[in-house]
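quick one
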Amino acid sequence: MKEIRMVDLATQYEKIKIEINEAINEVLESTAFINGPAVRTFKENLEKHLKVHHVIPCANGTDALQLAMMALDLQPGDEVITASFTYVATAEVIALLKLTPVLVDVDEETFLIDPQKIEKAITSKTKAIVPVHLFGQCADMERIMAIANRYNLFVIEDTAQAINAEYTFSDGTVKKAGTIGHIGCTSFFPSKNLGCYGDGGAIFTNDDVLASKLRMIANHGQSIQYHHDIVGVNSRLDTIQAAILNIKLKYLNDYTKARQAAAEYYDHAFEGHPLLKIPKRTLNSTHVFHQYTLKLSPEVDRNGLKNYLAEQKIPSMIYYPIPLHKQKAYQSDRYGPGDFPISEQLAASVISLPMHTELTKEQQDFIIHHVFNFLKRYIS
Ligand SMILES: *Cc1c(COP(=O)(O)O)cnc(C)c1O
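structure w/ pyridoxal-5'-phosphate:
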């Protein structure tokens, strides 16, 4: 059996090596390293794939979120609501721009931001909501958009973990993750569902005005060279990364299906076990399984399980061990330990198993066997 990895980029690369190497070589020969033709073709291919008017490629997912906030003309002290159980990047850019991150708790079964709690957190200073499509399925976008419309708020979707997920509205309309809010942000970090071989990111919007503003901000605040109308940043997707993404985008649907099949295989094995809960699917979104995350019963020694798996050469990860409101950099007199009990409970009880496009049944059987083997000690 092949070595089990959390994400097996090596085996995935083996299968597309010829195409990838050719694409990289083409860029090397052309020396068009910055804004070469592949950046434009990737942008257009992704627009078609997502059925969104504008894709603005940028340097990484964190930049995408920052550019999105900058484009909305938010003022210091404006409040932006996001989830307490997420990767730090979301809150980081809010704080960096001197906006106020307002955290709300998540749903204990789906791990997604709770719309009811969003509504409770709205004040006269609230300007935007950043739902995070955590682990690969969309937050409850129909309700979030309804709340945003009612209170006149912007919605920036953090789609870094959910590219290619599909959300179905109650009228039957289907939209891709990241194309529902005013702006969507994603990351092409290598381990993401559409990953390049370095850093990369992109912003999505259907709004023409926001799109040209986002493009300006990403390019030093200029629309004409050396004419700087607003303060911007330098955030670009390298041509080499765009060339790689152009190849990988062709396989994104297959990659998504491979992850979903692996998740179903895990589900089938783990469902109904008294000491763990399989990841719950929402009704409206497909799940693209950036992570396959189990929730353990309180009596299970999570570190013990993790160490036991490691001894069998099975990697596992804790996403995320500390919720944002307990992170040193995000201390606030607005909240403290105990305020987001579900996030705290999840931080203490979740464990993510290997999940990627190359998992074999043999590897999964091995992982499943050893999870069960560890849990046996709790069952008399
Ligand atoms: C990965 C990730 C980001 C940041 O992406 P980078 O490309 O690493 O900057 C932001 N939000 C979430 C939820 C992520 O998982």
